[in-house]
User: What shape does this take?
Amino acid sequence: KQEVTQIPAALSVPEGENLVLNCSFTDSAIYNLQWFRQDPGKGLTSLLLIQSSQREQTSGRLNASLDKSSGRSTLYIAASQPGDSATYLCAVGDLQGGSEKLVFGKGTKLTVNP
Amino acid sequence: EADIYQTPRYLVIGTGKKITLECSQTMGHDKMYWYQQDPGMELHLIHYSYGVNSTEKGDLSSESTVSRIRTEHFPLTLESARPSHTSQYLCASSELGWYTGELFFGEGSRLTVL
Assistant: This one.
């Protein structure tokens, strides 16, 4: 059974700092990996999608990497801003038994202090 | 911005009441999903649909039921609410499925059962 772990559970940094969020998964036979952002009391917004054949994806100040063999992904945020404060969720997708499965981690709550 | 809407956003009801959480999308997406999320915990898939008249149960056992009579609507119903149903319920939709990265979430319905 696929399990996704995100460390740390919470992170507080000063504005301008570069930071890394970690995601690990137990079964390396994944279809893809996604990073989402969730603001308090809101739904999820997809940030980056990495297909299993890819190593990384970039969008603006965000860079996500994927190492399937070691079951790990990182989300790098450059020059953090207070507006980056949110919970960041990692989710891996696989097609076990022919049915779609998107397995989420519990998230990392990021606070960027002005 | 995603055109997927959930109502009500917040609901407090007594035990034994029947409730329906509404989810509507205007994007013409065939695939729709219901997730349940407790505070600080992972999202768990409870129902999904691949189109009109298609409904399937997700990974997490749920006493709720869903229907898909029209493409744009995917309501979730609890016939007799209990305190254990207290949670946040998130609806999502996609044209091709989560593996394309295009998964749009509503803002959620936070249910409290007294």
